[in-house]
Specification:
Elements: H1 17-22, E1 27-32, H2 38-51, E2 57-61, H3 64-81, H4 83-88, E3 97-100, E4 103-109, E5 123-127, H5 134-144, E6 151-156, H6 164-171, E7 175-180, E8 187-188, E9 196-197, E10 212-214, E11 221-222, H7 227-231, E12 235-238, E13 247-252, H8 262-274, H9 276-286, H10 300-305, E14 325-330, E15 334-343, H11 351-354, E16 356-366, H12 372-379, E17 384-388, H13 393-402, E18 407-413, E19 421-425, E20 431-436, H14 437-449, E21 453-454, H15 461-469, E22 471-476, E23 482-487, H16 494-513
Parallel strand pairs: 1-6, 1-13, 2-4, 2-5, 5-6, 7-13, 14-17, 16-21, 17-18, 18-20
Antiparallel strand pairs: 3-4, 7-8, 7-12, 9-10, 10-11, 14-15, 15-16, 19-20, 22-23
Helix pairs in contact: 8-9, 14-16
The structure holds zinc ion.
Length: 522
Amino acid sequence: MGEPFPGYYSYKYHPWCQEVADSVAPFNSIMKAAQMGVTEVAINRAFYTIDVLKRDVLYVLPTTVNASDFSKARFKSALMQSEYLSNLFTDTNTVGLKQAGGVNLYIRGSRGDSNLKSVPVSTLILDEVDEMNQKQIWLALERLSGHIEKNVWALSTPTIPKYGIHKLFLQGTQEHWMFPCPHCGRITELIWPDCMEICGDCLEDPRCKESFLKCKECKHKLNHEEKPEFLKKGFWESTAAESNSDNRSFYVNQLNSFTVSPSEIVQAYFRGLLDEQAATEFHNSKLGLPYLGEGAQLTDEIIEQNIKNYSKQDNRPDAGGTRFITMGIDQGKWLHIVVMEWFITEPSRDLNAVAKGKLLWEGKILGAEFKCLDRLMYEWRVLACVIDADPEINEARRFAKRFPGYVYLCRYRRGPSGKEISNQADDTENQILIVDRTNWIDCALGRFHSQKISLPMDLSREYREHLKSLVRTYIKDESGNPQARYIDTGVADHFAHAQTYAEIGLPLAASITQNQPIEAFL
Ligand SMILES: [Zn+2]
């Protein structure tokens, strides 16, 4: 092993890892804080399966880039430090495939078209589950269920509740790392905030450094430096009401860590009091717990606050009027539609920030009935309509051709690009708007929090459920920087996207009526 604990691998600094490594359960999941030594367990497990059990292993990381980095860095360095391992592998030239005689180690990313299903293995290791394409994961797990000799290891720092690793954790034994207190002898565990004596009152306060751990039973101080002594007597204890030993799940946080001092944890806590990203980081990476920030998800209460005394059935706009109306359409089995009217009382460069919106109508029609959209365009006197480009791109194009200059196809793009809208011509010279997903969803849902939207009394139940299903969290990108992202929780969210498309229609409508480029209104 290299730094921070050079020399032969030992459980001295990660005593919680030993039983995890030795688990014989077919299914294991580990919900953990950052840097708890668990990835080493997964790597050791992969080598053990190949060397001793002589079985193939599929090691999955979030992206293809992660998989390639892992293959170059962690895998290679393990081989460089061990003559035994380097003799074991006969061919290591292919990035995603390492051969040890007749046995294979496959290293894959979960996103893109990596197709995990096609790799024939009975041992599956999922490293950083919460950053993975969840659909791929469930497909891979489903496929394994047919094997008799199966072995799954899923590990991750958590993100949001009941998602990814937290969802897996809840399905298992839910074991916590317990130990006898060296002072009172009672069996206890290190948890926040009960086991932390917080010194100082803010990040800048030098007294932070004096913060220390304590036993929550007897309140006696627990010395950080003495952790190897008292934690080596630790053991895993199930907290699940019903537990099935075939599905073990483990939880461990950084209060147990030898490399992270109590004051570092307290500083992370103070940082979290100042902004949501830091609060998310504190809960996920330090405490190893899922976390929902205050503005992370719409609630019934927030939706209710915006309901006003009018109906979706109220009179339609008159012909030749000057009302500012946009429509957003999300495609799929159904076309989910949102019609918005906008009110702008002050001129601004950023129209979406100042405009107040009124939801005139929401509803859905069958995906096969694109023609019905024409009637809605006339009925609502729509100035700008934004429609999801996929899956029926040809239908969407025909619709756009029937209303040149009024209907725009749109696709989401990920990445730190702000609110800009780029207008790209595709191979058939049709214009497609490419927009940043997180920013525009922020913008559309943000007005529910700031009460800059009015909703009708007869708002549908489906609309409410879809708007609540998008959850915002922070996921590390390939360079390790946290990026805000709305996670697909597997619950239908079509109206939330239709609402976002109607929001994107606002600067488009302004550019149409004022005959100016769209950039003038972003
Ligand atoms: Zn005690």
